[in-house]
Amino acid sequence: MSEPILTLSDVTVAFDALKAVDGVSLTVPRGQRRAIIGPNGAGKTTLFNAIAGAHPPTSGKVMFNGNDVSELPPHRRARLGISRTFQITNLFPTLSVQDNMMLALRGLKPKKFSLFGAPDPDEAEAARIGSALKAARIAERADVIVKEMSYGEQRQLEIAIALVTTPTMLLLDEPAAGLSPSERSMIAEVIRSLDPAITVILIEHDMDLALGLVDHVTCMFEGRVLVEEPPEGIRRNAKVQEVYLGKPRHA
Amino acid sequence: MTPASKSRILGMTARGATTAAAILIVAALLPLGLSSYQVGLATEILIFGILAMSIDILAGFAGRTSLGHGAIFGVSTYVVVYMTSQAEMSPWLALLLGIAAATVVAAVFALLAVRTSGVYFLLLTLALGMIIWGVCLRWTQVTGGENGMRGDVRPAILVGQSAFYWAVLACAAVVSYAMWRFVCSPFGLTLRGIRDSESRMRSLGYNVPLHLFIGFSVSGVFAGIAGALYAMFNNFVSPSTVALAQSVEGVLMMIAGGVGTLFGAFVGAAAIIVLENIVSSYTQRWLMVLGITFVLIMIFAPEGIIGKLRAIFSRKAKAP
Questions:
Q1: What are the phi and psi torsion angles at A14 (to 5°)?
Q2: Which of A107, A118, A119 sits opposite B206 (nearest CB)?
């Protein structure tokens, strides 16, 4: 195993008395594909927010790529190479795919303040947008207005936006939520073919989809890490079956 | 992908540049065929078109409709008239001061308003505009109160009706081009992003209030230019120039032309000013006619005149 890119030590996120994430410690090696599974309310999205910075941890430490990022706001973490998608699609519906990508790309650059400059991307920008769209399999849709795309394509654009800033770590929050089976397999294909250098952490409800994509699975329950195992073991794990299916009743 | 090597003239496509040039030539030839009264109307249309465009920068591109732009416009008018008549300053310097004053007022409005959106933004800008109106009405020693102020603002070379029209036309052309470049610029794109999703913009690393502040202030510069031209046009200013009705008229012109179409502002300004002059010669109930016109526009062409025309043409282009 290579050196860890992300280390959480004893991370807690509390909303008043409720500990949504309760003392989670986690190590993700560079380049790993990791799934975080668990029933509703297990604290998966809150854990994502603690990693990406939307809800900094109440206590504990988040180390990313050798930096302590526990206290940093989201855009500073983005600059270090953490990129994420959202569970609920959040795009710019009246703009073209190209313009969506431009906004994503320029968020951290001074060029966003150019008041009378030319609107077109320069060569480097065009190349990055092109490769991100290609990775998300929507390269030929660059000129389409987002609200005219199917929901599945919008989820793909969500991933393309997260990729265009060339992140070292990508957090995918239920990338296939609400999609049809064929759209799900498209998303799975997109995730599977991502650059292996990118570390990917994935939240997913659909076990079949998640387990087919990752090297390692963390199962959360009530804010804590319940089990950490490779996907082959997780299906047969009694504890995981218990939280998903309920306690087996003894006759 | 759009080819980056499309041939452009000053950033415009060949077709866009030709259309702009054709419209400019026709507009420049107008005084040769019109009476001096009509040339005056055309001048007024250009001035209010600039005002409506400055409102469209915020309403159409940042999703924030301002009801305070009439006041920003009027502050510039007041400053220009005051500086030339009371302080006996040169008209050119007075114009610059007027635009600067409008920009400062816009920046103050922006500081207070950029953290709001929707109806709160509307009401806050309305209230700020009312404050300006109150000041102009009550600060009698400086503003002349209800009687207003008369001034001889126009420089000697622009006294003739046609000469002034050409000057305003040249100014409108430059200002429109600047506003168009502004909304198409990388910064303009960030305003459209804010209109579509503020939360996403924030997570992409944009400082949303800062962008709205800059957008509002730039829009104020353009409203100030319109106000300064109006001072030269009217040689007179009174509280009605900064009143709410002025802001509302600007917003209505923008809506009539088409929100987010930018150049629709001139069409909207023309429609309303021409209609006002025709109707007023028959009846005193102009405001009633204006109201009915708006109800009809909202029902049959909520996307405005230009918006409607664009929709019709694109449907025709798509049809086999």
A1: -115, 135
A2: A107
% of chain B at pLDDT higher than 90: 60
Q: What is the pLDDT of residue B317?
A: 76
State the pLDDT at residue B227.
Answer: 96
Name chain B contacts of A92, Cβ cutoff 8 Å.
Answer: 192-193, 196-197, 200
User: Which residue numbers in chain B have pLDDT < 70?
Assistant: 1-7, 319-320
Backbone φ and ψ for B11, nearest 5 degrees, come out as: 85, -5
- Tokens matching residue B82: 């005051």
Which of B189, B206, B221 is the mutation pick for testing A, counting most A CBs within 10 A?
A: B189
Alpha-carbon span A17 to A220, nearest angstrom: 19
Would the CB atoms of A113 and B201 count as touching at under 8 Å? Answer: no
Residue with more model confidence, A142 or A119: A142
User: What range defines the domain where residue B229 resides?
Assistant: 27-243
Nearest CA in chain A to B63: A94
Q: Own/partner pairs for B268-272, CB < 8 Å, 24+ apart?
A: B268/B49, B268/B52, B268/B304, B268/B305, B269/B45, B269/B46, B269/B48, B269/B49, B269/B51, B269/B52, B270/B45, B270/B49, B271/B305, B272/B48
| Phi and psi torsions of A18, nearest 5° | -85, 120
Q: CB of B116 within 8 A of CB of B208?
A: no
- pTM for this one? 0.86
Tell me, what's the ipTM?
A: 0.82
Whether residue B59 contacts residue B251, with contact meaning beta carbons closer than 8 Å, is answered with yes
Q: Which residues of chain B lie closer than 8 angstroms to A74, CB-CB?
A: 203, 205
Q: Please tell me the total count of domains within chain B.
A: 1
Q: How does pLDDT run across B222-273, given as a tens digit for each residue?
A: 999 999 999 999 999 999 999 998 999 999 999 999 998 999 999 999 999 9
Cα nearest neighbour of A109 on chain B = B205
What secondary structure, in 3-state letters, does chain A show? CCCEEEEEEEEEEEECCEEEEEEEEEEEECCCEEEEECCCCCCHHHHHHHHHCCCCCCEEEEEECCEECCCCCHHHHHHHCEEECCCCCCCCCCCEHHHHHHHHHHCCCHHHHCCCCCCCCCHHHHHHHHHHHHHCCCHHHCCCEHHHCCHHHHHHHHHHHHHHCCCCEEEEECCCCCCCHHHHHHHHHHHHCCCCCCEEEEECCCHHHHHCCCCEEEEEECCEEEEEECHHHHHHCHHHHHHHHCCCCCC
Cβ atoms of B50 and B175 within 8 Å: the answer is: yes
Domains of chain A from N-terminus onward: 1-81+167-251 (3.40.50.300), 90-166 (no CATH)
- A115, B218: Cβ pair inside 8 Å? yes
- A165-224 pLDDT, tens digit each: 888 999 999 888 888 888 888 888 889 888 888 999 999 877 888 888 898 999 988 888
